[in-house]
Amino acid sequence: MVSVSGILGYGYPEASLDAAVARGIDMIGCDGGSSDPGPYYLGSGKPFVSLRAMRRDLRLMLRAAIRSKVPMVVGTAGGAGGAPHLQLVAQMVRDIAREEGLHFNLALIHAEQDKAKIASRIREGRTAPLGRMAPLDEATVQRATRIVGMCGPEPYMRALDQGAQVVIGGRSSDPAPFAANAMRAQLPPGPAWYAGKMLECGAAPALPKGPDCLHVIVREDGVICEPMGDRACTPMSVANHSLHENASPVRHVEPGGVLDTSDCRFEAVSPKATLVTGMRWTPAETYTVKLEAAEMLGHRAITICGTRDPVLIGQLDHFLDLVRGLVAGKARDLDIAPEDYRLTIHSYGANGVMAGREPVREVRGHEIGFLVDVIGRDADIAGAVIALARTSMLHSDFPGRLCKEGNMAFPFSPSDLAAGEVYRFSMSHVVMPDDPYEMFPIEHEVV
Fold first, then answer.
1. Left (φ > 0), alpha (ψ -120 to 50) or beta: where does 290 sit?
2. What is the per-residue pLDDT for 213?
3. Which helix (H) or strand (E) holds 178?
4. pLDDT (tens digit, 9 = 90+) per residue, 245-263?
5. Rounded CA separation 327/320 (Å)
6. In this protein, which residues make up the domain named Acyclic terpene utilisation N-terminal (predicted)?
7. Is the preceding peptide bond at 414 cis, omega within 30 degrees of 0?
8. Within a 10 A sphere around the Cβ of 290, how many other Cβ atoms?
9. Both ends of the chain: CA-CA distance in Å?
10. Which domains does the chain show, CATH number per domain?
11. pLDDT (tens digit per residue) in 337-355
């Protein structure tokens, strides 16, 4: 199998895909998204990569798959895998097919969930929290803007068995589309899932880091990973990559079971390729599907500014407390209650990245950059409060102040920028379905 990129739209060299096809492939695939960029994309229904970049990546994949007569599979379409994301990518596929004169059977795997169905599962006691989340309740379900289930490999296998050559999936476990193709070929689930873990991030298991296609051979006893460009999968780079994105470095919980990599061995089989063996798959007693949901909090407005005034920087905490107090007072004058907004001032150069968790307290640069962030109950409140904050940052007095004009330098005009709707992740739970397919209906069409 070949994975073209870590995310559809991140780009890859066309020559690398051609090299993979020449090497021999049974599937072309790409993970289309992630929850890493945050809840906005799930809530808003928008992609987090450019449409132009997605279209380019898809065009090359489709042409190669149809020419090679192999399946093309994309998971977590459009970035977050909701209904609008799935339809966006599906329409791109149709448009490219028309432009290129391509003919194939297309399957769409839907992952957005019906609220009433999830609520019924709560009442049946068939949901459970992950991590430190509270148990799921129906109020959380009703507040959600969009809920998706994380699809396992079984719906992908079914879509291919039903005759699809191109499969576009909604929200999916990242390795699932690749694991599906290997298990459908009667290979063991351990190597199949491990191959998926490697392929989901494109050539990330290779060195040096950069855009490239990853070619993986799945065997009964393991997998061989090799990038197609001027890179190498070394035992260390592959082992390093296998540790990522998990609470445990060796136990990877997936729909239907656990991939255990604690006994894996890594062996260079060429200057560019590494063989991994020793992975184990333990089936779960109960099949579970992870739920993700985004809930709208309000609207965001920001302003960016900076100072190199040594007197202000020397009393930065006092100055920012003064600004917060001024904003609160002026907001009350505008009939904006404290609970109607949240003001955050990120001070880059002074704990701006880690805030209260920053262990280094002594070092402070000669200049400080500020990202002033307001989340308001609505766009009008966000705009009003950010204007108050910008004015207060610019003109507030402080002890020893020598400047008689503005305290801050602003890089942009207009200085106040509306950043749109704000969401938060409200679900990280699992649901126990009747089977791996019921939450993920498959829609077929001839393109």
1. beta
2. 98
3. helix 176-184
4. 778 889 999 999 999 999 9
5. 11
6. 58-203
7. yes
8. 21
9. 24
10. 2-111+150-288+432-446 (no CATH), 296-423 (3.30.70)
11. 999 999 999 999 988 888 8
